[in-house]
Amino acid sequence: MVTMGLLFYLTPAMQLTWGVVVGHEPMPLARWLGFALIWLALSVFSADAFVARPCRLGRARIVIPVTPSSERGIESCGTAC
User: Fold this and answer.
1) What secondary structure letter does DSSP report for 74?
2) What is the pLDDT averaged over residues 13-41?
3) What is the spatial distance between Cα 28 and Cα 16, in angstroms, rounded to a whole number?
4) Are the CB atoms for 42 and 6 separated by under 8 Å?
């Protein structure tokens, strides 16, 4: 979902590029600053996701083996506990 969310920003960026380059839309400084702030936030978010990724994949998993109660010497009373 994170990847899809980031990919959804490509369409507005392409539309902005098309509008400025082909359509000669006016782009005041405030719009450029807003555009830059959005991409700065996305780059920080992406960098954090990539930095944290190896930590999540490298964690050791604790596996607790499940054995039937009869092997552990526990008598079943016949009721659901």
Assistant:
1) P
2) 92
3) 13
4) yes
User: How far is 10 from 55, CA to CA, in rounded Å?
Assistant: 28
User: For 53-79, what is the mean pLDDT?
Assistant: 59
Alpha helices in the chain (DSSP H): 2-7, 10-21, 29-58
Amino acid symbol at 69: S
Give burial (CB, 10 Å; 0-12/13-18/19+) of 51.
Answer: exposed
CB 25 within 8 A of CB 19: yes
Q: Which residue type is seen at 77?
A: C
CA dihedral 35, 37, 40, 46 (to 10 degrees): -80
pLDDT digits (tens, 9 = 90+) for 32-63: 999 999 889 888 988 887 887 765 555 555 66
Which residues make Cβ contacts (< 8 Å) with residue 2, sequence separation at least 6?
A: 49
